[in-house]
């Protein structure tokens, strides 16, 4: 991967716009009585549109974050392979924890989980829209900018930022920490952003499905 593919100006514009969009979404949820999921859906879609506008204006366009049209199909294929491997390792780790008398589901959800009132919207926002927006920002832009200082600093810092940004969610942010490491590593190796997007989408869909198959 190129070590200086994302300029500071690009990252700064995307970050400033994202902060403003999120602030406006929080205000709109309270002011207009929007449901939190609806507000999140709108803010993430606007985030994607804002980042798309900035990235399209860069000299290399989508190519400089590995999301040009020619990378879509190969990225999807490689993402499915990575997801299968990640899923197998997760299943193995869960088996080891269970053998040791530790419930892996309780590590993810220490408190009982309430099923969403609108599961279709939850899966749409958390399973598809959210991962796309987050991978463009955290891997495409943040990791892409930090990569100028080498793989390991970029991996550590982007994962730390990604984990901290999710620290307000319920439970220990283990999935976000592990996910951040996997997403960035896959992006580094494959050089195609659709690879971590695919892993992220399938991982989130799996996590959101757990309350519907297990009592947690």
Describe the protein:
The model has no long low-confidence stretch (mean pLDDT 90). Helix 3 packs across helix 8 and helix 5 runs antiparallel to helix 6. The protein is built from 8 helices and no strands.
Number of strands: 0
Biggest β-sheet description: none
Average pLDDT number: 90
Terminal-residue CA separation: 41 Å
Unreliably modeled segments: none
> Into which percentage range does the β-strand content fall?
under 5%
| DSSP helical segment count | 8
Structural class: mainly alpha
Shape summary: globular
Helicity, as a percent range: over 70%
Q: What letter string, H or E per element, gives the SSE order?
A: HHHHHHHH
Number of domains: 1
Please provide a brief summary of the model.
By secondary structure, the chain is an all-alpha fold. The chain has helices at residues 8-32, 36-56, 72-99, 104-108, 119-146, 151-165, 174-190, 194-213. Helix 5 runs antiparallel to helix 8 (194-213).
Can you lay out the helices and strands and say which pair or pack?
Layout: H1 8-32, H2 36-56, H3 72-99, H4 104-108, H5 119-146, H6 151-165, H7 174-190, H8 194-213
Helix pairs in contact: 1-2, 1-5, 2-5, 3-8, 5-6, 5-8, 6-7, 7-8
Task: Describe this protein with a few key phrases.
0% strand; single chain; mainly alpha; 8 helices; 216 residues
């Amino acid at each position: 991967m190129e070590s200086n593919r994302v300029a500071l100006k690009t990252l700064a514009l995307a970050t400033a716009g994202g902060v403003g969009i999120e602030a406006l979404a929080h205000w709109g949820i309270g002011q207009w009585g929007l449901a939190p999921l609806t507000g999140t859906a709108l803010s993430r879609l606007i985030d994607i549109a804002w980042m798309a506008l900035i990235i399209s204006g860069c000299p290399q366009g989508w190519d400089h974050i590995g999301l040009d049209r020619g990378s879509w199909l190969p990225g999807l294929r490689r993402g499915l392979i990575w997801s299968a491997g990640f899923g197998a390792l997760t299943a193995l780790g869960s088996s080891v924890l269970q053998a040791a008398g530790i419930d892996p589901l309780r590590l993810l959800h220490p408190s009982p989980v309430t099923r969403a009132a609108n599961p279709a919207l939850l899966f749409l926002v958390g399973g598809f829209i959210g991962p796309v927006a987050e991978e463009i920002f955290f891997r495409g832009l943040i990791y892409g900018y930090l990569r100028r200082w080498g793989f390991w600093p970029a991996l550590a810092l982007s994962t730390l930022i990604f984990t901290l940004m999710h620290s307000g969610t319920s439970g220990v942010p283990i999935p976000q920490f592990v996910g951040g490491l996997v997403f960035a590593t896959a992006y580094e190796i494959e050089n195609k952003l659709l690879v971590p997007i695919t892993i992220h989408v399938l991982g989130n869909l799996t996590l959101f499905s757990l309350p519907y198959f297990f009592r947690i």
